[in-house]
Amino acid sequence: MFSKVLIANRGEIAVRIIRACRELGLSTVAVYSEADRGSLHVRLADEAFCIGPAPARDSYLNIPSIISTAELLGVDAIHPGYGFLAENPHFAEVCRDCGISFIGPSPEAIQKMGNKSTAREMVRKAGVAIVPGSDGPVRDEAAAAGIARNLGYPLIIKAAGGGGGRGMRVVHNRDDLRRAMTEARAEAEAAFGNGEVYVEKYLEEPRHVEVQILADARGTVATLGERDCSVQRRHQKLIEESPSLGVGPKLRRALSRAAARVAEAAGYTNAGTVEFLVDHAERFYFVEMNTRIQVEHGVTEMVTGIDIVKEQIRIAAGERLAVPREMEPRGHAIECRVNAEDPARDFLPSPGTIVAFVPPGGPGIRVDTHVFAGYTVPPHYDSLIAKVIAWGQDREEAIARMQRALREFEIAGIQTTIPFHQDALENAFFRRGEVYVNFVQRRMDLTVLHV
Ligand code: MV4
C-alpha cells in the first residue's frame, strides 16, 4: 500500500479523497491555487502546497508544478479527482514516467475511451449495442447525408474528442445538415482541438443510465449497479439517483454485463462509468465511458455500502478486488447538486462570501462539501458547493428525506440551486419517475422559481 498521496484537485472531491486516505492510514498532500488558500482541503490535508495563481491552467492544470510538488514531498501516488487532469492521458503518462502511481486507469485506456468515435468502434466489436450511426468519423456533409439515407432523420452529430455535450448538434432534415456539420466541427475544434465528428440516429426521449464499475489489475470487473442521471440542464447534471426507475432486475443484469464487457475489452482498471441511453422499449445503447471518479459516485456508495474512492486507491496499489462481482442496490439514493448559481436568473453563477452555512443531517442524509460559514466561493472554478445525498428504504422515503434536508439547509450570502431542487422534487412527472433527458426543458417551468 502507498504511504503518501497527493490530491491534484480542489473542492468537495479533494475533501472526499483526503477522507478516504485518512481511513486507509495514508498521509495526504493538498495542492491549492492562490484563490484556495483558505479552503477546507488545505486545512484537512497533512501537508499543503501552493501550485500557482487562481486560473486553473496555471494551477490545477499545471502539470510541471504538480509533479514537482509530488517529487519534492515524496508521494507514492496522485489522485486526480474529476475534471482538471483526471482524463488527461498525457498526465497519467507523466506520472508513470516519474514512478508515481496514477490513481486511475492506464494512459492507454484513457486515450482509447477519450476518442468517442474509436470507443464506439471498440464497443461494437466487443458485441455491445451502440446507437445506429456512422462507422468511425464522417468526412463531410455528403458522407453524413449518405448515412441519413439509411437511417432517416433526426440524427445527432457528435464530436469524437468530446463528451459532455459540446460539439453536439441535432439535425432534423437534409436542409439543416450542412450548417450543423460546420457548427459541430468548429465547436469541437475550438473545445478539444479535434474537429472530428461522427453521426448517430437521434433517440427522442431516452433515459441517461450509467453503470458504475470497478476493475482491478488482474482483469476482474465488478459492477455496482446503475445511476439515472436524466435530470440535467445544458449537460450539467442536477439530480442523480440509484436505482433507475426505468431499470428492473433483468435490465440491470443486461446493462451490468454489457458494462463489464466494455471494461474488459478496453483492458480497463480502476473505477469507471459506462454510459448508456435507454429508450422507451428498454433497449439500451452504449454512448461513452467516463474514466474517472464521478461527482455522483456517492449515490452508488449509499445503495451498495462500498467506498468507491478507497477501492480506487486499493486497486492502484495492486490489491485484488474484494467486492462482489455484481451488486443489486439496497434501498434508494438520490443526490441533489447544490451549485452557487441563481436558478431564477438562468443559473447565473453566484460566487461570493457565504455568511451563514448550516448543513442538514439526521437519518439517511450525507452532505459532501468543502464550504463553511465565512468561506468565499471563488469565481474561477465550477460552481458545485455541496452534494446532498438522501438514502431511503424506497424512492418515496429518499425523496421525503431529501425534501426535509433541503428545508433544513441554510445558506446565506449567495444564491444556490436549492429552490430548483425543491421544485423538481415536487414535480408530478419526477414523482412518477417519468424522467428523460429532456425533463428540465419539457417538464419544468423555471420562470416560476422564486428565491
Ligand atoms: C444522444 C442523445 C440522443 N440520441 N445520442 C448527451 C451527452 C452525451 N454523453 C450523450 N448525450 C446524448 N446523446 C443519441 N444518439 C441525447 C443525448 C442527450 C442530449 C442531447 C441533446 C440535448 C440534451 C441532451 C441531454 C442529455 C443527453
Automatic annotation (TrEMBL):
<comment type="function">
    <text>This protein is a component of the acetyl coenzyme A carboxylase complex; first, biotin carboxylase catalyzes the carboxylation of the carrier protein and then the transcarboxylase transfers the carboxyl group to form malonyl-CoA.</text>
</comment>
<keyword id="KW-0276">Fatty acid metabolism</keyword>
<comment type="pathway">
    <text>Lipid metabolism; malonyl-CoA biosynthesis; malonyl-CoA from acetyl-CoA: step 1/1.</text>
</comment>
<keyword id="KW-0436">Ligase</keyword>
<dbReference type="InterPro" id="IPR011764">
    <property type="entry name" value="Biotin_carboxylation_dom"/>
</dbReference>
<dbReference type="GO" id="GO:0046872">
    <property type="term" value="F:metal ion binding"/>
</dbReference>
<dbReference type="InterPro" id="IPR005481">
    <property type="entry name" value="BC-like_N"/>
</dbReference>
<keyword id="KW-0067">ATP-binding</keyword>
<keyword id="KW-0460">Magnesium</keyword>
<dbReference type="InterPro" id="IPR005482">
    <property type="entry name" value="Biotin_COase_C"/>
</dbReference>
<dbReference type="GO" id="GO:0005524">
    <property type="term" value="F:ATP binding"/>
</dbReference>
<dbReference type="InterPro" id="IPR051602">
    <property type="entry name" value="ACC_Biotin_Carboxylase"/>
</dbReference>
<feature type="domain" description="ATP-grasp">
    <location>
        <begin position="120"/>
        <end position="317"/>
    </location>
</feature>
<keyword id="KW-0444">Lipid biosynthesis</keyword>
<protein>
    <recommendedName>
        <fullName>Biotin carboxylase</fullName>
        <ecNumber>6.3.4.14</ecNumber>
    </recommendedName>
</protein>
<comment type="subunit">
    <text>Acetyl-CoA carboxylase is a heterohexamer of biotin carboxyl carrier protein, biotin carboxylase and the two subunits of carboxyl transferase in a 2:2 complex.</text>
</comment>
<dbReference type="InterPro" id="IPR016185">
    <property type="entry name" value="PreATP-grasp_dom_sf"/>
</dbReference>
<dbReference type="InterPro" id="IPR005479">
    <property type="entry name" value="CPAse_ATP-bd"/>
</dbReference>
<dbReference type="GO" id="GO:0004075">
    <property type="term" value="F:biotin carboxylase activity"/>
</dbReference>
<dbReference type="Pfam" id="PF00289">
    <property type="entry name" value="Biotin_carb_N"/>
</dbReference>
<keyword id="KW-0547">Nucleotide-binding</keyword>
<dbReference type="InterPro" id="IPR011054">
    <property type="entry name" value="Rudment_hybrid_motif"/>
</dbReference>
<dbReference type="InterPro" id="IPR004549">
    <property type="entry name" value="Acetyl_CoA_COase_biotin_COase"/>
</dbReference>
<keyword id="KW-0479">Metal-binding</keyword>
<keyword id="KW-0275">Fatty acid biosynthesis</keyword>
<dbReference type="GO" id="GO:0006633">
    <property type="term" value="P:fatty acid biosynthetic process"/>
</dbReference>
<feature type="domain" description="Biotin carboxylation">
    <location>
        <begin position="1"/>
        <end position="445"/>
    </location>
</feature>
<dbReference type="InterPro" id="IPR011761">
    <property type="entry name" value="ATP-grasp"/>
</dbReference>
<dbReference type="Pfam" id="PF02785">
    <property type="entry name" value="Biotin_carb_C"/>
</dbReference>
<dbReference type="Pfam" id="PF02786">
    <property type="entry name" value="CPSase_L_D2"/>
</dbReference>
<keyword id="KW-0443">Lipid metabolism</keyword>
<dbReference type="GO" id="GO:2001295">
    <property type="term" value="P:malonyl-CoA biosynthetic process"/>
</dbReference>
<keyword id="KW-0092">Biotin</keyword>
